[in-house]
Amino acid sequence: MFVKKLPLATSAVVVATLALTAGCGSGGGSSSEDGKSGVAIGKGMAKLPVEPSPSPTPTPTPTPTDDPSDTPTGGTGLVTPDAKMGPCGWDSSSMPYADVKITNSSSTTQYYSIFVGFTDKDDKVVTSGIASDAAVPGNGKKTVKVKGFLPDSSKKAKTCRITLATKSATKN
């Protein structure tokens, strides 16, 4: 009798194919209750077709508003109408500055904290500056110089803007 030996790779494929087909149940995969114990590939598989579950309903997100949801603290608002932007420039050490003119609308001394942003031509922040607890007498006027935190030797800052100005009857 003539017996031809198959290469090892071909033998492995034939054995794997026989093992798969021998272990399969009628539904294409061996179920755990059919008693064949077959091949692990069929164990625990769901029967097809699988019914899709309904997609979750997205919860609507509230429309954003510009109205603050909380009451500002430390003053009467984020930018008090008592503060007006004056001229801006650079001092001798290339530090940008802004002169903020304050007119105290109260009859008692008020303390002002002012935050100024210095921006370039594209409205990107170059640096910022702050003046804190500047006392202004009742119904008085005062100019407060707010200096930038970082020097601007190339003079990129083109505009200055009050981004926060609060007033309080007490020092913060």
Question: Mind explaining what this structure looks like?
Answer:
- This protein is mainly beta and 172 residues long.
- It has a domain at 83-168: Immunoglobulins (Immunoglobulin-like, Sandwich).
- Helices cover 9% and strands 32% of the residues.
- The chain has 1 helix and 6 strands; from the N terminus they run H-E-E-E-E-E-E.
- The longest helix has 16 residues, at 8-23.
- It is flat and about 70 Å long.
Entry summary:
The chain is mainly beta and 172 residues long.
| Oligomer category | single chain
Structural class: mainly beta
Radius of gyration using CA atoms only:
38 Å
Q: What is the CATH superfamily of the domain at 83-168?
A: Immunoglobulins
Mean of the pLDDT scores?
75
Shape type: flat
Low-confidence stretches: 40-46, 68-76
Percent range of helical residues: under 10%
Distance between the termini: 106 Å
Q: List the helices and strands in order.
A: HEEEEEE
Number of helical segments with 4 or more residues: 1
Strand order, largest beta sheet: 1-2-5
Strand content: 25-35%
Describe the sheet with the most strands: 3 strands, antiparallel
| CATH third-tier fold name of the domain at 83-168 | Immunoglobulin-like
DSSP, total strands: 6
The CATH first-level class of the domain at 83-168 comes to Mainly Beta
